[in-house]
Structures are given as C-alpha cells and as structure tokens.
Amino acid sequence: MNSTTPLLSSNGASTSYSNLTEFPPLVLDNGRRRIGTKKSLRTKIQIPLLCYARFTATMAYFSIFPYVALMIQHHSSSRATDIGIYVGLFEVLFLAAQALASIFWITMADKFGGKTILISILLGTIVNSVIFGFTSSLWQMALCRCFMGLMSGGDAVIRVMIGKRCMTETEATHGFSLYSLSGNIGMASGLVISHALVNRVSHYSTILKTSSFIEQHPFCLPGITVGIMSAACAIVATLFAEDVKRDADEAADDTASTSSLQTSWTSLRELISSPGASSTIPSFLNISLLGSAFTVVTILALYTDISQGGLEFSGHKITVYMICQGAFAACWLFMIYPALYQPSGTEKIISSSPVIFLFLFMCFGIMNVLVRSGSEPSFFLFRVIFGAMTVMGPAIYMSITAVYVGLQEVSPSPRELGLLNGVAEAASCLLRLIILSIGIFIYAFCNYDRVTVGYLNWTVLLLAGLSFFVLMSPTCTRLTRS
Questions:
Q1: Transmembrane residues, as ranges (predicted)?
Q2: CATH number corresponding to 44-243+272-473
Q3: What is the pTM of this model?
Q4: pLDDT tens digits, residue range 444-456?
C-alpha cells in the first residue's frame, strides 16, 4: 500500500483487518525515511506530553460530577427527582457541542498546526473550569457545559497528533495505551479532587480566611484547582510540544493535497465506505457508546443509594476503587494488550469486547441484589463478584485502545487520519447524545412511576451490549471462516 493506492479496491473485494494491520503509508513511509535517525529527548517526550493534555482535559470534564447536583439544588428550587434530568440535559448540550466541534478542530489543526490548536483548547479548558464554579443560575451552567463541549471536540486532535508520531505497530499500541490510561487517571483525579474540595469547604475556608467568599461561591474551589492544573499543562505544552516535522517529500504531498482540498472533502464518502473504515467506524461507535455509558453509570451507581439500585459507597471507598481501577488499567494496557495484539490483531480484540461489557453490566445488578438481601453468604458473594469486576473492568480500556489503533491502521494518509478521527468522534457524540436523551426519558419515567431506576439502567445497558454482540457476530463469522 502506498500514497497512490485507491481507498476502494477495483474488484470490489472485501478487505479484512488482517490486511490492514499493515500500517498505512503515514507510518510505513516515515519509518523507512527515518531509519538510522536517533530520536532526541524532546522528540521522545512528545507522546507523554500529548497524554498529559488528555489527562488534563478528562480531569476537567469529570471534575464537575461530584458537585453538579448540589449546584443545581443550590441555584434553583427544583425537586430532588428533577436534578438528574437537569444533569442529563447539560450532558446532552455538551455532546451536541462536541459533535459540532470535532471536525472543525481537525480542520484547524491541518491549517494552523496541532500545537496551536492544542494550546487553544487548553486555554479554553482553563477559562471554562474556573467560570463554572462561579455560575449562579442553570442557564449559566448550561452555557459553560456547551463551551466545554466545544473544547472537548479537540480530543480527536490529540489522537491524530499521537497517531502521526507512531512509526511502528509497537509505538502505536504503546502510544494509544498511554492515551487511554491517561484518560482513566484523569477521570479518577477529577472525581477525587472535586469530592475532596466540595466536602471540606468549611475546613479550607478557615485555612484561607476567606469564609465569606467561599460561602458566597461554595463550588469555586474545584474549578480553580482544575484551572490551575490546566494552566500548568498549557505552559508545558507551549514550551515543549512540537508539531510533527515533515521532510520535503511529505511537504510536497501535503501541498498537493491542500490544493485539492475540495477533492479530499468530496472523497469523504469513499473514505468512510472503504472496506477498512466501514468496519472500524461502527466498532468505534459501539465501543465508545458502551464504554462511556458504563463509565458514567458506574460512577452514579457507586454514589446511588442501595434502594435505588446502587452500591452506596462512601467517598473514601470510591477513591480506593478509582485508584485500583487505574492500577489494573495499566496492567491491561501495557502488559496484556500488547501480548494479545501481536498474535490476534485489532479485529479479534474488538470482537471479544462484547463479552467484557456483558459481564460488567450484569455484575452491578447482581451486586445490588446481594447487598440488598443483607445475609452473610450474599455479602461474601458480593465481595467475590466486586473483586472480579474490579480486575476485569479496566479491560474495557483495552477495547477502546484497539479501536483507536484500528482507525490508525485503516487511514491511508495523514490528512485522512485526521478526517477519519474527526468523523468518528462526531458520529460517536451524536450517537451518545441520542442514547443519553433516551436515558433522560427513562430516568423521568422511573421517577414519576416509581420504577427502580438502577435496575432499569443496567437492563437497558445489558440489552445494548447484547445488540452489540449481535452486530459483531458477522465479523466473528468471517474470522472463523478465514
């Protein structure tokens, strides 16, 4: 495969992942050209720097969840049963803005460079994180979440910048594994920091001797803290981050592609319908949807009362759980995933992911039933299942990493790598937006009709996992035949 290879084969034959695990020209050509070139320390730290930016963005996104319900209750006279609906509506606005901005940021990165866009996104994250804690009404909170969605549309830019720096299969698996792990650690850090600050307002106000200010803005400390950490990341990115350097041949190719920008956009349909992309994008959508749903609903389940289908963990227990998740995620991503990737390839890893999701979705419902019963044997079984889930749960990040690598594998050139990631990210946000809207309706139905919301949530997710399994079964059949 080279830069002149058409996206659609002339004979219309289907292309399998086994042929696409041969990396695209972006990787193979650069790898060939740079043989014998020793990487400098500045070059070696670029992927960790990008993952640091990913950590910061994810931390900023999840940092509001420990106190957003309290903010809604503080700023309005809404009923307790309506707070969850408002939280869901805020996230719908977030996803809508993210979907609109994903392709825009990719286009701007192609035009002005990835570093410029990365710094712009981090600056926007700083402003949004600080302002959100000072909002005083629901419409201001909604506006802040929309703005955060616009900034989060740049996640695809970070993935593309990592992809352009991965010259071999090993570098790609390690790079995207670090990307996934940094997002997981960012999620845990955002939740832990915000929970600690919001629940100790009186303590910190005494130390800072600004009790009147803290009393007037009780939710500002998490935003200020996250804003300072985001500012540190922006400074580091400004000083040390670099765009991918291209040689003369690559610059000429880019000039030619820029002159035919309209042609590249008109070929978007061919790119999406090409054999590799047509298999990878649906997998990206499904795994992204299930992974996001599981992550968010898991957080809610840990906080939720047992009577409502949750586990009612204390803040300390949730913190320990998040730390364990990060540790086991590192094991899955850096030990097990590379070992599975070499003999199995991307498609087999993606095809096995429905089994993991089904196991996890069933675990939470079963654990709530066991805890609700209150007997000693039930509590013993609960601990066994919870331990297994704690170890197996982070395996979902291996599946998510696999679809990132899959997009890298099926991309025919650097420009298409960015466009493919932007389209996949936008489509994923739209799909999650639709599902979340349905979830809000389910939540409202549970509130007004006295249905146990926790059980219904896990039932819906279980059905979604089963549907994913059915959708992936043709792929499994092709693998078996091959």
A1: 49-71, 83-106, 118-142, 176-198, 219-241, 284-306, 318-337, 349-371, 380-407, 419-446, 453-472
A2: 1.20.1250.20
A3: 0.80
A4: 666 555 555 555 6
